[in-house]
Amino acid sequence: MKKILLILCSVLLLTFTGCNSMPDQIDKIIIENESVVVGVGQTVKLKVKIEPSNAIANELIMTSSNEEIAVINGMGEVVGKSVGETEIKICAKRGNACTTKIVKVVENEVKDK
User: What is the pTM of this model?
Assistant: First the structure.
């Protein structure tokens, strides 16, 4: 009887623990900014959303395809360096989720909307 009760408790514990577990990794990355235009020497912050939002491994890697045009830091802030366009790529450190956004850097100062 004790063995049956122990097995039953173990099954229940695994069932409830499994239901409440958090996802291991990011499935999707979304850059919510419709378009990204920044002036030379200015900074614009990307609005980045991950799905699922409660993923345990939620570290992101952010890169610019041309750092002479614009750079991005780990907080999603893009700094315009010179006039042109570059692609910003954001990928999950763990898993295959990635997204990109074209950033346009202009000479004139861009006013916040």
Answer: 0.76
- CA dihedral angle for residue 11, residue 17, residue 20, residue 23, rounded to 10 degrees: -110
Tokens of 37: 């235009």
Report residue 86 as tokens.
């570059």
Contact criterion met (CB below 8 Å) for 78 and 71? yes
Closest CA to 106 of 49, 15, 42: 42
Question: How many other CB atoms sit within 10 Å of the CB of residue 36?
Answer: 21
Scan for tokens 């099954």, then name that residue.
Answer: 11
- Please state, as a whole number, how many other Cβ atoms lie within 10 Å of the Cβ of residue 72: 23
CB 105 within 8 A of CB 69: yes
Element (H, E) at 17: helix 2-19
User: pLDDT confidence of 22, banded at 50, 70, 90?
Assistant: confident
Count Cα neighbours of 82 within 13 Å in the Cβ-side half-sphere: 4
